[in-house]
Write a structure and sequence with these properties.
32% of the residues lie in helices and 24% in strands. By secondary structure, it is an alpha/beta fold. The chain has two domains: 178 residues, Thiolase/Chalcone synthase (Peroxisomal Thiolase, Chain A, domain 1); 148 residues, Peroxisomal Thiolase, Chain A, domain 1, CATH 3.40.47.10. The strands form four sheets. A five-stranded mixed beta sheet has the order 1-7-6-4-5, with helices on both faces. Strands 8-13-12-11 form a four-stranded mixed beta sheet, sandwiched between helices. It has a two-stranded antiparallel ribbon with strand order 2-3. A hairpin with a 3-residue loop joins strand 12 and strand 13. The longest helix is centred in the last third of the chain and has 23 residues. The radius of gyration is 19 Å and the shape is globular.
């Protein structure tokens, strides 16, 4: 990826609009204290989370993603007819198939749009933007709708005290369209597959869990929080530094840093290593918990709504999670 100066006035891409949706049901720390041995003070101190949203029993990821996309089109004035490709980042699809993206495409009447789901866990939104940027910049597509949505509470083990306090449900969407020059100035992606056993969800195979894996309930998440924390801090800090180097900027030039809202302590540690002040970070962790791929668009939309992010601001988005995978972008809003 080259810097904006090297790309000159060549066609690129930009984020035109953002939309979000969260379910109405709220699950507070006090509610969780009735299920497992924990307290509000302990959860806030360890994670920064005070509450999270829970999808209704008959509300699924496709419903959340469709609602987020509708919110985007309402706010932007753009039309679903303009979209040529729908990319949905999710690890909790309604079905193995049809894809969530296909369901969104149908419900919004995008008759000429392709549709594909992307499985990059908490980095799904950043990976989706990375791919959309390439497709739009190359002239393959004019407008790509990138959505991140999760219903993690449906796959959370509420007997696991260490993990059940973290997760919530939400969706966010962004429209990527052409710009000359493009506003996405640099991107990085990466994977550390050897770390997969530290964060996984059981499925057709339990082999990743080792000899006792077959005893695990199917479809539930497992996390080695200490190892994920260590990997995330080292990897995200290094990735942010690479983004700034490729774009020719320093921490002083970054107006807003929006990492995946996994845990406020991870964000603090990354900021300390990169020199980006914690006061210039945006998070969705306090009110929504860890919503995986949806945390970044939730924080981005809130920053815009609260008049913090303005056109021309330099913003870093960085996702990381199960795989272990990570992806980041540096862009001008």
């Amino acid at each position: 990826m080259t810097s904006a100066a090297h790309r000159g006035a060549h066609r690129g891409a930009r984020l035109e609009a953002v939309g979000t949706y969260v379910p109405s049901k709220v699950l507070t720390n006090a509610d969780l204290a009735k299920l497992v041995d924990t307290t509000d003070e302990w959860i806030v101190r360890r994670t920064g989370i005070r509450e999270r949203r829970v999808a209704a029993p008959d509300e699924f990821t496709s419903d959340l993603c469709t609602a987020a996309a509708r919110d985007l089109f309402t706010r932007s004035g753009s039309s679903p007819d303009d979209v040529e490709l729908v990319i949905v980042g999710t690890t909790t699809p309604d079905y193995a198939f049809p894809s969530v993206a296909s369901q969104v495409q149908d419900r919004l009447g995008m008759r000429h749009a392709g549709a594909v789901d992307l499985q990059a866990t908490c980095a799904g939104f950043a990976y989706g933007l990375h791919i959309a940027n390439g497709l739009v910049s190359a002239g393959i597509h004019e407008r790509v709708l990138v959505i991140a949505g999760e219903t993690l509470t449906k796959v959370t083990d509420y007997t696991d005290r260490a993990s059940c306090i973290l997760f919530g449900d939400a969706a966010g969407a962004a429209l990527v369209e052409p710009a000359t020059p493009g506003s996405i100035r640099a991107s990085v992606v990466g994977s550390h597959g050897e770390g997969g056993p530290h964060l996984y969800r059981t499925g057709l195979s339990c082999r990743i869990a080792g000899p006792a894996g077959a005893e695990l309930a199917p479809g539930l998440m497992r996390q080695n929080g200490r190892e994920v924390y260590r990997w995330a801090v080292e990897t995200v800090a290094a990735g942010v530094s690479r983004l700034m180097e490729r774009a020719g900027v320093t921490g002083d030039d970054i107006d807003w840093f929006i990492p995946h809202s996994a845990n406020i302590r991870i964000t603090e540690a990354v900021c300390e290593r990169t020199g980006i002040p914690i006061a210039r970070t945006l998070s969705s962790i306090e009110c929504y918990g860890n919503t995986s791929a949806a945390t970044i668009p939730l924080a981005l939309a809130a920053g815009i709504a609260e008049d913090k992010i303005h056109r021309g601001d330099t913003v870093i988005l960085y996702g990381f999670g199960g795989g272990l995978v990570h992806a980041g972008l540096l862009l001008e809003w």
